[in-house]
Model the fold of this input.
Amino acid sequence: MPADSESVRTWRPLGVRVVGVMISAGLLVVVAMAWFGFDQETRDKFTAIQMLTILGFGLLAGSVLYALMRSRVEAHPDRLVVVNGYRRREFTWPQVVAVHMPPGAPWATLDLANGETTSAMGIQGSDGDRARTAVRELRQLLNEHSAPEQ
Done:
């Protein structure tokens, strides 16, 4: 493992991951119980197309849940990486001006030097104190990296 990997700080949403695992497990249990609850005659009436359709919907639901669960914010020594669903964006520290998460906001927002903003779904407002702590830590890192070097 590279030496600089120790200095990487990662924030992930806890609530989203817990709910994603619970929904995935619950959906799997319900589908399995329904399938095995059918008598053999009913199961035999399913065509290959119908089975593939059910499998496709399951994969679609799984991919959406996985996209939400993989969201994160990573602070590296030279950059900030924001993963929202399947989109990954990297910013150098000077590109990030500020971090905001007002009360009631669903997730943190990064203000960028070019005047744009971007969501940081790895820090979810629904995580409460955990999210507020993450925003404080990220602000502290932002201040450290924006301070003039001596």
Remarks:
- The helical segments are 14-37, 40-44, 48-69, 129-146.
- Residues 13-69 form one domain.
